[in-house]
Amino acid sequence: MADALDYSGLVDLAAGTVDRAAFTDPGVFQAEQERLFTRVWLFLGHESQIPEPEDFFTSRMGTESVIVARDRDGQVHALLNSCTHRGMKVCRHDHGKAKVFTCPYHGWSFSNDGRLAGVPGALIGVPHFDKAYRGELRREDWGLSRAPRLEIYKGTIWASWDENAPDFLDYLGDMRLYLDYALDGRDGSPGGSRVVAGVQKWRVNCNWKFAPENFIGDMYHDISHRSVDLVGIGPAGGKGRRAAFRPRLAIGFPGRGHGVLGELPTTEPEPYNDAWALYPEVNDWYRVAHEARLAHFAGRPRVAMSVGTIFPNMSFHGRQPRTIVVAHPVSPTVTELWRWCLEDAAAPQAVNDAARVYFLRYSGPGGMTESDDMENWSYATAASLGPIARRRPYNYQMGMGHARPAPGLRDAVECGELTEENARIFHSRWADFLRGEPWAARVPHAAE
Ligand code: FES
Ligand code: FE
Questions:
Q1: Which numbered ligand comes closest to the C-alpha of 220?
Q2: Sheet (strand 100-102) strand order
Q3: What torsion do the CA atoms of 45, 46, 49, 51 make, to the nearest 10 degrees?
Q4: Does the predicted interface ipTM exceed a cut of 0.90?
Q5: Is the minimum distance from the CB of 104 to ligand 1 under 6 angstroms?
Q6: Which ligand is nearest to the CA of 373?
Q7: From the CB of 379, is ligand 1 less than 6 Å away?
Q8: Whose CA is nearest to atom 2 of ligand 1?
Q9: pLDDT digit string (tens) for 97-119?
């Protein structure tokens, strides 16, 4: 296959612009698939979706379907969902339980660790392996493609197709502190969360990059949620969402591409916010959990955050409702959004019910804020396709030259919350991959 063209010049950091072709051009989209999605660490799902041996769910890595399967020994594998015979999708279910995945086309079957287990001959249901292949097929060469790198971090499952990708924790860097904030229990207990059953999946007519760029720190777009604030759908009711907000900074990780709206590490005690005051039982539980969290971190720096993105396409909310959203590319102008809702493993049912209901009215295809965002992204994509529109790049000049090193964090910068620094960091990292830059050029490999 011809090597992808170098589209990295579409990002002009000196001018603070990104060419619209980065969001609309089929050639750029293909280059992203070949140069970015085959290398980075990608979020696949959560261990609580496959608690038992032989459980599986299907997910995506870029445009490609993968089966995330737990084998009979409990090991988790990410397998390309494409038969090695003629490419048929061997698993067409969202989740389930299976010892083997049998291809519907000619019947090859693959064990849940990816090995080619069975090859029928010409007659349906008769094991004529010897007759069809005369014993000459090397079965060990024809298993499903398996992602060589897979990491489970506090229940979240990540994989990369690149053998040489840095270890996952090096890939995260200090962004890990903010991911921890979202994944740990509200009392600070490590990894004390699980996903609410079911993943919301829906399609939006926009380029996939709109979503992670929005969640990496686009506080500026909050004006488009004005109606949400007027309705006051936050847990504090009429006081609206901001009752639960404390001032945030945009904190970005140049060279890694991650970013967050959050606080710098601090040992200052954080006052409890009565965001759930309308629901006394829920509020009481959060107050106790908050005290426990402060005790958990006593004398140690801790962070708080509201929303962030792990490069390239995994974003998350760290406050209630805690959610994960992944923007899967489908085409230059179509994106499939998947959303997971996290709940506290230790919380009583009433608390998790309240968080789930709030999640449904806030996020997802029927959520009030997400509807605003989807409308912006899809109209922006459509209005960027024409020959005249394509003459002008997007403007990313807000806050250029005003980033400072972030105290208490390695390889990080911070700005006030109204800045496009994190978006510039995202697109700069995107350009690195489209240029084919080696890992060692930006991400330090040695774990500290
Ligand atoms: Fe799967 Fe032929 S395509 S067995
Ligand atoms: Fe929004």
A1: 2
A2: 100-102, 109-111, 116-118
A3: 140
A4: yes
A5: no
A6: 2
A7: no
A8: 106
A9: 999 999 999 999 999 999 999 88
Strands 17-18 and 95-97: what pairing? unpaired
Cα separations (Å) of 346 from 33, 289, 343? 40, 10, 9
Give me the CATH code for the 42-141 domain, please.
2.102.10.10
- Nearest ligand 1 atom to alpha carbon 90: 1
Query: Ligand 1, residues 108, 109, 110, 116: which to mutate, most atoms within 8 A of Cβ?
Result: 108
Taking each helix axis from N to C end, the angle separating 26-35 and 421-435, rounded to the nearest 10 degrees, works out to: 80
Ligand nearest to the CA of 82: 1
The three-class DSSP label of residue 407 is coil
Ligand 1 atom nearest 107 alpha carbon? 4
**Would you say 339 and 323 are in contact if contact means Cβ atoms under 8 Å apart?**
yes
Q: Across the beta sheet with 42-46, what order do the strands follow?
A: 42-46, 156-160, 149-153
Q: How many CB atoms lie within 10 A of CB 1?
A: 5
Residue closest by Cα to atom 4 of ligand 1: 106
Domain ranges of the chain: 42-141, 173-441
Q: Which atom in ligand 1 lies closest to the alpha carbon of residue 87?
A: 3
CATH superfamily of 173-441: Naphthalene 1,2-dioxygenase Alpha Subunit; Chain A, domain 1 (3.90.380.10)
At 122-180, the pLDDT tens digits run 445 555 566 778 778 888 999 999 999 999 999 999 999 999 999 999 999 999 999 99
Ligand 1 contact via 116 beta carbon (within 6 Å): no
| H/E run at residue 280 | helix 280-296
Nearest CA-CA partner of 441 in 419, 433, 339: 433
CA of 65 to the centre of ligand 1 (A): 16
